[in-house]
Amino acid sequence: MRIKEKGESQWICVSFQEISGFTFENGYEYELLVNKIIVANPPQDAGNVKYELIKVISQTKKE
Predict the structure, then answer these.
(1) What pLDDT, on the 0 to 100 scale, is given for residue 45?
(2) Which residues does 35 contact at the CB level (< 8 Å), separation at least 6?
(3) Secondary structure (DSSP) of the chain
(4) Backbone φ and ψ of 44, nearest 5°
(5) Cα(32)–Cα(60) distance, rounded to whole angstroms?
(6) pLDDT band at residue 56, thresholds of 50, 70 and 90?
(7) pLDDT, tens digit, 9 for 90 and up, residues 8-34
(8) Mean pLDDT, all residues of the chain
(9) Which residues, 6+ apart, have CB-to-CB distance to 9 below 8 Å?
(10) Cβ-Cβ contacts under 8 Å for 44 (sequence gap 6 or more)
(11) Cα 57 to the chain's mean position, in Å?
């Protein structure tokens, strides 16, 4: 998964994480608007960042 935060010009690669409210369909590329939530005390086996879908901006079929 590649992300670009507001105000940044560069994309960064991160391990794929679940985006609450979004269901990925294989064969498509998406541009999403999400809310980034910092978790104060995450479980040891989880990250401290969660994402929540605000809007699907685009969904493009890939060959």
Answers:
(1) 80
(2) 51, 52, 54
(3) -EE--TT--S-EE-----EET----TTEEEEEEEEEEE-SS--TTS-SEEEEEEEEEEEEE--
(4) -60, -30
(5) 12
(6) very high
(7) 899 888 776 788 899 888 899 999 999
(8) 87
(9) none
(10) none
(11) 13
How many Å apart are CA 10 and CA 48, to the nearest integer? 22
The amino acid at residue 61 is K
Q: Which residue has the tokens 């269901």?
A: 23
What is the share, in percent, of the chain residues with pLDDT greater than 90?
33
Q: Which amino acid is at 60?
A: T
Residue 3 pairs in a beta bridge with 12
Q: Is the pTM of this model over 0.90?
A: no
Task: Give the separation between CA 34 and CA 43, rounded to whole angstroms.
Answer: 22
